[in-house]
Structures are given as C-alpha cells and as structure tokens.
Amino acid sequence: MGTISVLCAMWACAFGAEREASGPHFEGQSPSPGVAVPRSDGNGWKTIYPADFNNDGMVDVLWQRTRHNLMAVWLMNGSQLLAPGPVISGPIGDGWAAISAGDFNQDHMADVFWYNSPQNLVAIWLMNGSQLLAPGPVIPGPIGDGWVAVTSAADFNSDGMNDVVLNNPRQNLMTVWLMNGSQLLAPGPVIPGPIGDGWTASSTADFNADGMADVLWNNARRNLMAVWLMNGAQLLAPGPNIPGPNGDGWVTITAFDFNVDGMADVLWHNAGQNLMAVWLMDGSQLLAPGPNIPGPIGAGWVPAQGAADFNFDGTADVLWNNAAQNLMAVWLMDGSQLLAPGPNIPGPFEN
Ligand SMILES: [Ca+2]
Ligand SMILES: [Ca+2]
Ligand SMILES: [Ca+2]
Ligand SMILES: [Ca+2]
C-alpha cells in the first residue's frame, strides 16, 4: 500500500471516529475531506496489543483512547497497515480500559479484554475482525481493594480459550480466572506473589511448552524478574529470582516466544535510556540475555505490552507506540536480534 492510499484510509478512520463516539459500532462511510486534522501532540490514542483479529494469520493492532472509552482494531499486513477499523465505544460508564486482546471463544479471531480499575470489573467483548460481535457481561473482580488486570492474553488450562489474570500489587497477590468465552468459568485461588515488596505480575505466556500459560513477575525497584510455572489456575513451581539488565530503569514489558523453541522469552524496556532487550528463557531459567537495542529515534517510544509474530517466521516481533506523537511501528526480530525496523505509522486522529 502506497503512502497516498494509507493516508486515505487514515482519513476514513478519522471521520468514522467522530461519528462513532455516539454509538457502539458502525459501518464506515466515505469521508468528506477537509475537516479532520492530525495532531502532532497526540490525542490520547495508544496501541495496546497485537493479535490476529480476522484469522488471516497476520497480526493486527488494538488501539484504545482511554479518556473517551474508545477502541479500534487496525488490520495489518506484516508491518504495514492494511485497513484501519471503525472506532468502537467501550462498556458503559467511566473507568474502563481495553487491556489486551486474544481469542476467548475459539473462533481464532482475537477478542478484547476490558477492565474497570476504579470499580474492579471485567468484561470480554467478542470481535469479528475489526467489528464488534458481542459485548460480554460485566463481571465483578476478586473481593478486596487494589486489584489490577495483568496486560496479557493467554490460555492457562489448554482449552483454547484465553483466561484472565488479576494482580494485587499492594497485597502482593495474583489469581487466574478461567473463562468460557466471555463468561466466567471458574475463579482460581488467590496466590501470594514472590517474597518481598515491589512485585507486579507483568505478563503471562507459556514458558515451559506444556500448553499452559505461566506468570512473569517483575520487581522494577530491585531490578528482578521471576517466572512462575502454572498448572491451570494453580501454582506448579515458582522459579528463581533473576537479576535484570545492568543499570537502572529496566522493566519487563511482555513475554512471547522469540526464538521458536516453544518457550516464552522476556522483552525488557528501559524508557530513560530508550533501550530494549530480549532475554531468551528455558522454562523459568535464563537461557541467554540478548543485546541492548536502541529504540526508535525520538522521545516517548514504549513497546506495547504484548508481542506477536507479524511476519510469519515464527519469532515474536516488537510493536512500538509513541502516544505523544500518535505513532506506531513494528520492528521485526530474529530471536533477540533486530531484523528490520518497520515504518512509523500515524495512529487514529479526529478533529
Ligand atoms: Ca489479521
Ligand atoms: Ca482457557
Ligand atoms: Ca506452561
Ligand atoms: Ca523461546
């Protein structure tokens, strides 16, 4: 797709966005040009998560605009934009945020995990490509204060349907809730986190290739990570605490398989130094820490809290977002090495 056609697609999205703010979803119509203007200072849109929404084997991108409770799915062709989808209003009420995307109902099309942090509520919205198929029920989260949703999408009980993980950093607790589509199947036990203060459940992915997702813990203050292997919603084996990359400011962003051995690896990011690194894992043990790689040029770039394989080589790639500049970029990886940085792509905009 050339620059002109990309821009036309962007215009269509911008106009769709204005219409969409009043309703749950819509069918796009031809825009009349000359009204919307892209903003160089950003407008609140963020790339949240990569996932295949239309079952064409190619990973797409979930956008959200939290302040206005909006989401959009952009269908991708590798690291190029194929078609920006309509802007869709989220669940009714304040406080909702789209957290992540993954397949909850076994139709091989990704769905959207919504969480309302102030009210501690969960909702799964089933999608059909970039269109809303069916908004699921609003489900109250675990009892007590301080719960947050873990930004990831993974299946803990090998039933082909994603499950939901909630973390309570204040009380150092986590729990896996097994889902059946957009319905709650079984809330798992509340499990205490690693010993000491400062731990957060950072992400989830299958680290030991048993088909069941595991939990990546991060302690940014102490620069530590740990992988806890799970058996469904039960803790199987807590892994060792592993020191992070040298220097201050590193956080674990997400876990995904970067070297095609079926075991998830860890993506690190250092916002202050604009660096990323992929550390290859062998179960809950560190296999090989990858090199520190400079991020995209300019300030404000952060990797999305999910990785995915954008170019069919089986290895995970990195989805970058610059919310201030309203840009995204897909960087293709080869294991822990950078293969090819993709173009910067402007995000949704409206007047
Ligand atoms: Ca796709
Ligand atoms: Ca499941
Ligand atoms: Ca596992
Ligand atoms: Ca791996």
Automatic annotation (TrEMBL):
Could you list this entry's UniProt keywords, alphabetically sorted.
Signal
Which SUPFAM superfamilies does the annotation name?
Answer: Integrin alpha N-terminal domain (SSF69318)
InterPro entries per UniProt: FG-GAP, Integrin_alpha_N
Q: Which domain of life is it from?
A: Bacteria
Q: What is this protein called?
A: Secreted protein
Species: Sorangium cellulosum (strain So ce56) (Polyangium cellulosum (strain So ce56))
Q: What is the lineage of its organism?
A: Bacteria, Pseudomonadati, Myxococcota, Polyangia, Polyangiales
